[in-house]
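Summary for the steering committee. One of the milestones for this cycle was to obtain a three-dimensional model of the protein with zinc ion bound, which we needed before selecting residues for the alanine scan. The sequence and ligand used are listed below.
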Amino acid sequence: LKLAAVGGRSAIVFGERLLDLELTTGGVLPADPMLAFPLVVELGRDGIVDLVADDPNAPRTDEVRLGAPVPRPQKIFGVGLNYRSHAAEAGLEVPDEPLIFTKLPSAIIGPEDDVLLPGGPAEVDWEAELVVVIGRRARRIRPADAWSYVLGFMCGQDISDRAAQHKGRGQLTIAKSYDTFAPIGPVVVTLDEVSNRDDVAVRCRLNDSEVQAGRTADLVFSISDLVSRLSAHHTLEPGDLLFTGTPSGVGLTRRPPRFLTDGDILETEVEGIGTMRNRCVLDSPGLDPVPATGACDAT
Ligand code: ZN
């Protein structure tokens, strides 16, 4: 199954068309993608396909603007240095324990949305990643059972401001959680459609030239191991996300370094899932600065 979101509503790819999940199942499945995930796991592929009524008038997938397929995850985990190739290019040893960080859910954007560059001293970098979507509540599960809690995969970009990331003792959460720094999509592909869940190609193109190409077979900590470890202390909820790390080829380790600039087009591809295309644009000045005098000037 391929699950999408259009205008905040859950949708399913059926042939070349995109069907509204609530309407096509006569209300059996909910419109809110976050509520649909556990039911999709429970009913399984066959159960869902039985419910879906095709609609020849439904739009084709290329006729609508897709939103983030998981719009409001409760938690987003990331893993640092989880590809041997990326650890090597960074000149760092492969860690003994997974280096886990979090990204704020407010950083989520869709597969066609713009990444906002703050300008100034920011050094904004790309990281193409396979993202794991949790399908049902998981607490203290064993690695051998972990896959049964996973709904599926999608593409993700773990965008980072390297200047902020390396400032002082490091600011991983902040530097990776600016607004728009977590593009995801284009769809969630459920595990039944993934041919080899432990070996999937991950690619990144910047303005049509390939900058990253790796395979998840190169992961230091496997997906089932990571899901099990995370569940030991954090109850995983449907729609929680795990960014599984990035292969070599990020901008920071290039000579000279290459950071994202206004107008760059970032394409993220995961084998069997699809491609996400995000434009990078310089952010506007935004809110008016606080006036120098007036009510706030109490000191
Ligand atoms: Zn990352």
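Key point for the committee: The CA atoms of residues 62 and 239 lie 25 Å apart.
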